[in-house]
Amino acid sequence: MPGAVIVHHHTRYKTYPGEVTGFVFFCCLIASVGGCIFGYDIGLTAGLTSTESFLAMFFPVIFEQQQERVITNQYCKFDSQVLTLFGSSLFLSAMVAGIFASPMSRAFGRKWTLFVAAVAYLIGAILGAISFNFIVLLTGRLLLGVGVGLCIHASPLYISEMAPAQQRGMLNILFQLMITVGILSASLTTYWTSKIAGGWGWRVGLAFGTVPAAVIALGSLAIPDTPVSLIARGEGEAARATLAKIRGVDDVRAEFEDLTTASEESKAVAHPWRELFFGGRYKPQLAFAVLIPFFQQLTGINVIMFYAPVLFKTVGFRQDASLVSSVITGLVNVFSTFVAVMTADKVGRRALFLQGGTQMIISQILVGTFIGLQFGVSGTGAMSEQYAMCIVLFVCVYVAGFAWSWGPMGWLIPSEVYPLAVRSAAQSVTVAVNMFFTAFISQIFLTLLCHLRFGLFYFFGAWVLLMTVFIATLLPETKCVPLEEVAHVWRKHWFWRKFIVDSPDRGGAEMRKRIALEMS
Fold first, then answer.
1. Which residues pair with 14 in a beta bridge?
2. Cross-strand partners of 13
3. Contacts of 300 (CB under 8 A, 6+ apart)
4. Helix, strand or coil, per DSSP, at residue 502
5. What is the pLDDT of residues 303-358, one digit of tens each?
6. Cα(226)–Cα(222) distance, integer angstroms
7. What are the DSSP calls for 427-483, one per residue?
8. Does the keyword Membrane apply (predicted)?
């Protein structure tokens, strides 16, 4: 049965028979749990580095300094570069692992990359929970980073390659949904373990990281690799059988033939890294591989979630109240992500980016203004309960805007715009850039807060304004476009079409064939 045709912005794109079967949903759900371990670490580290018993054991000098210092400037609390570097070590480890994930996923497939990631994370969580000295603790944290780096490389690719084009956005956003679930779970765990007498509750929090890791490890044994990955490794019959199973139809000839043709073309690219950076054919995709994760971190979201307990404590909340407030923002994050799940394939990627970005800009301006009016430039004084609740409210509005825009779209867009020939390498670039700037922004956040004061929120607001303009002018719409057809989107875009390199000596039929090959 030939592929059907859908109309998208006056362009007709091929689509294939099939729907979201229970099996493909199960496969994508297992892969999406990779987001949970990433989110869990983001949320857990914030509570961990503010736990007194943990600091006393592993960072005694810093703990003593915190006990001795009396700080009246509300902007300059909790500033320790060593402690922040410990938190950032996971992301730096994930950055390196993300680069090595490209050859791993090409050689062994997305499925087994997920399995190795889960095992690394499982071992890291166990070492962290039983750690008796700093070396064991750091080793465990670096292994956690390896697991995170491999997961956030393989998970979005796995989901995008398994999902039908019409529901790719919805299924891919499961990854971001799991990140929010991980952050919320970490906040709840931190709140609960802080009540445990004896000061060992932080060990329980680290040990709980084994749960999502075990789900990925066992689940990856029960799911197949993607048809794209199977074809690339010469397992054509297994790919055809998998494709029929995930599409829920017997006749998958059209899609299978397109994928096979695309795979043959991709094999002609012997050095995908060289082709990506120096070949000249993929300038639009490379631009988004770098800029989307770069901009995602400059929204300021990770510093809000990463340091939520610290931030709320800084603006006047008590220890318990700050943890409760971070749980509230975590809940908002989870439920707001469902908006993207339900609408990404209906209103499109651009609409969510633009609406969410506008909401985030307004929220950041208001949060910065409220803090500035209360503490001024000097950072002295106390915050009233009314002001504190206003800050929590608009932080929640900001988190909601992120949760249905830059959160899910920041992972969805890179996973669906790369041609097969450079897809794995480009995803590694995305992961590396994301992890580097996660670590970098986390490292300088408290220093920036101390120096920029309430202007820090204006700083991030200005970046969100810039990236919203970038999206409005330069991002083409990719909703419901099959991966095999995405290259058409770039060729029709007013700006990016001038960077698409095609040989002028090819005839029309040859050109159409090459377009089809590049679009996979």
1. 5
2. 6
3. 364, 441, 457, 460, 463, 464
4. coil
5. 676 556 656 666 556 666 666 777 788 899 999 999 999 999 999 999 999 999 99
6. 13
7. HHHHHHHHHHHHHHHHHHHHHHHHHHTTHHHHHHHHHHHHHHHHHHHHPPP-TT--G
8. yes
Of 183, 175, 130, the residue nearest 151 (C-alpha) = 175
Q: What is the DSSP string of 14-53?
A: EE-S----HHHHHHHHHHHHHHHHHHHHHHHHHHHTT-HH
Dihedral pair phi/psi, residue 7, rounded to 5°: -105, 130
> Is residue 4 within a helix (H) or strand (E), and if so which, with residue range?
strand 4-8
What angle separates helix 134-162 from helix 168-193, to the nearest 10 degrees?
A: 160
* pLDDT value, residue 35: 95
Q: How far is CA 406 from CA 258, 301, 362, 455, in A?
A: 31, 9, 15, 22
pLDDT, residue 77, reads 63
Tell me how far apart the alpha carbons of residues 419 and 415 are, in angstroms, rounded to a whole number.
10
- Distance in angstroms (rounded) separating the CA atoms of residues 300 and 463: 9
Residue 349 domain-assigned? yes
In a domain, 240, yes or no: no
How far apart CA 308 and CA 302 sit, in angstroms, is: 9
Q: What is the pLDDT of residue 315?
A: 57
Contact 336, 404 (CB under 8 A): yes
Confirm whether 5 is domain-assigned.
no
Q: Tokens 């039983």 belong to which residue? A: 130
**pLDDT at residue 260 in the model:** 87
Can you tell me the distance from the alpha carbon of 138 to that of 314, in angstroms, rounded to the nearest whole number?
Answer: 27
CATH number, residue 162: 1.20.1250.20
pLDDT digits (tens, 9 = 90+) for 370-387: 888 877 777 776 667 777
Q: What's the confidence (pLDDT) of residue 505?
A: 36
The three-state secondary structure class of 5 is: strand
Distance CA 400, CA 356 (A): 8
In a domain, 324, yes or no: yes
What residues does 12 pair with on adjacent strands? Answer: 7
Q: What is the pLDDT of residue 518?
A: 44
| Nearest CA among 391, 383, 368 for reference residue 448 | 368
Say what the pTM is: 0.85
- What is the domain count for the chain? 1
The pLDDT, as a whole number, for residue 509 is 41
Average pLDDT of each block of 10 consecutive residues along the chain (520 residues)? 45 60 93 95 82 89 78 66 86 95 93 97 96 94 96 94 88 93 89 86 94 97 94 91 88 86 78 84 88 92 63 62 75 93 92 96 89 77 73 88 94 86 89 92 81 86 96 91 79 86 42 43
Q: Which domain holds residue 342?
A: 22-223+269-502
